[in-house]
Specification:
alpha/beta, Urease, subunit C, domain 1, TIM Barrel, 2 domains, four-stranded parallel β-sheet
């Protein structure tokens, strides 16, 4: 019996149909039609077929879509509070389409089939245009995304009033910083309306627009409560940073003596529509409340290590039943946006110490292949590659990934979490579209995109480099500010 002409078939020598080790099957033919899996059938081994290991694709649940490496333009790793200034100030002006396309291309080549893009604008006054460019890049590649609209209404220079930090600088530097960062911000009502405006222009079957209050330190209660009300009314998801650093923890403890998580709950933010990224400094009772409210935590291990933020209490999350997802945060440990390396790092950090249990392989794979997709678009899935499931899958070249394995003890999951990288990926399918073939992105000319992006970055580097002396004085002022702990007042 032959398949209908509109059906694509993939032969998998090895199929990991879900997050559990018991889900591995052999010699399966997967049929794809209309964006979904139409059947999975056992069949004889196909003579001459490439040996493929097929599994559910990954979702990148927290990222900023930065095609330029932070190291390339001088935003050197440092404490988050110091690093943020350089990440913004030194970024050369480039086409937002190229910036997003380069980042998305790297992601999909490592098995990502959906992503959360937390936008960091180059020009706040051109936010709609930048959103359109990002969504066009995602569409060309075939990557469904959540576009998270940035929302900030206070504390642009640090965790406190801007004037307190400006007062540590000379008048010349104060004027430079005011011109760059301390311009008037849109009202809360205007920012909420902007989310709707971007949704009107960009939202589609493959783009889910979300509210993005950047974090508790940068968003007033008025902004947060307005977002909570709008989310409840519209069903639109909310995505924000949370408790990334020890200083953020100290700031929150001083400002919210009753607990910042309880405060967010009182504002109406805690719900299954909310994703919190990082959550490095949460306490057991706070994890309990997040679990009760159905909030998802996006883990960002590489970013937390690179910026010295700490190691999240993942065993506590698992024990309390917090929903988990995995994000790269545009700061992968090897600076390559490789989601498979991120999985391995998470597993090594959190699978437990000594004989104490921690994050299991099944927990991790469920976070990356199931919950991550709900963070992107709110959908619910069980993660199984079975008839009727979305055709989101990644195929590895097994000869390169595990061709040396001779032990019956070593499973496909052991190999996946032990050594897999984007270099082992043969194909990636997103909603039935093959977006990576033979390790290459199908929807655009990635080398040409990277070449043009680098050329634009080089052309804009002189102005960015000229700002370095003022930036370094500002960063020194920030170190004095936080060293005096004035941010706790």
């Amino acid at each position: 019996m032959t398949a209908p002409s509109d059906t694509t078939q993939i032969f998998a020598h090895r199929l990991l149909a879900g997050a559990d080790r018991a889900a591995v099957a052999y010699n399966r033919r997967i049929g794809i039609r209309g964006g979904t899996i139409c059947d999975v059938q056992e069949c004889p081994a196909e003579e001459g077929a490439p040996p493929l290991f097929v599994m559910p694709a990954l979702a990148n649940a927290h990222d900023h879509g930065r095609g330029l490496s932070r190291l390339a333009y001088g935003a050197l790793d440092d404490a988050l509070e110091i690093w943020l200034a350089g990440a913004s100030a030194l970024h050369p002006p480039v086409d937002p389409y190229l910036l997003a396309a380069a980042a998305f291309a790297r992601m999909v080549r490592s098995g990502v089939a959906a992503a959360v893009h937390c936008h960091m604008p180059q020009r706040s006054d051109r936010l709609v245009d930048e959103a359109k460019a990002v969504c066009r890049a995602a569409g060309d590649i075939g990557l469904p995304i959540a576009f998270v609209v940035p929302m900030v209404d206070r504390h642009r220079l640090g965790y406190g009033e801007d004037d307190a930090i400006l007062g540590l600088l000379n008048e010349s530097d104060r004027e430079v910083l005011r011109a760059r960062w301390a311009r008037p911000l849109p009202s809360v009502q205007e920012q909420v309306a902007m989310v709707g405006e971007i949704a009107r222009h960009c939202e589609s079957a493959t783009v889910n627009v979300q509210f993005g209050p950047y974090g508790l330190e940068w968003a007033s209660d008025d902004l947060l409560s307005s977002v909570a009300e709008a989310s409840a009314r519209t069903g639109r998801r909310v995505h924000m940073h949370c408790q990334e650093t020890r200083r953020q923890r100290a700031w929150a403890d001083t400002r919210f003596p009753g607990g910042f998580v309880a405060h967010l709950d009182a504002l109406g933010l805690l719900s299954p529509r909310l994703t919190l990224a990082h959550c490095v400094w949460l306490r057991p009772e706070e994890c309990e409340l997040l679990a009760e409210r159905g909030v998802t935590v996006a883990l960002n291990a590489s970013s937390n290590l690179r910026l010295g933020s700490g190691v999240a209490p993942v065993a506590e999350f698992v024990g309390r039943g917090v929903r988990l997802a995995v994000g790269i945060d545009a700061l992968s440990l090897d600076d390559d946006d490789d989601a498979l390396r991120e999985l391995r790092l998470l597993y090594r950090l959190h699978r437990g110490s000594s004989l104490d249990p921690g994050l299991s392989a099944a927990d991790l794979l469920r976070a990356a292949t199931v919950t991550g997709f709900s963070v992107v678009d709110g959908s619910e899935r069980d993660g199984a590659l079975a008839s009727g499931a979305p055709a989101d899958l990644v195929a590895f070249d097994w000869d390169r990934l595990g061709g040396d394995v001779v032990s019956s003890r070593t499973t496909e999951i052991d190999i996946l979490l032990g050594r897999a990288t984007g270099g082992h990926v043969a194909s990636v399918w997103s909603r039935g579209r093959e977006i990576v073939r033979d390790g290459r992105v199908t929807g655009l000319d990635e080398p040409a995109v990277i070449g043009e992006l680098r050329a634009q970055a080089a052309a804009g580097a002189e102005a960015a480099n000229a700002f370095v002396p003022a930036l370094e004085r500002y960063q020194a002022a920030l170190r004095r500010y936080y060293g005096q702990e004035r941010h706790l007042q």
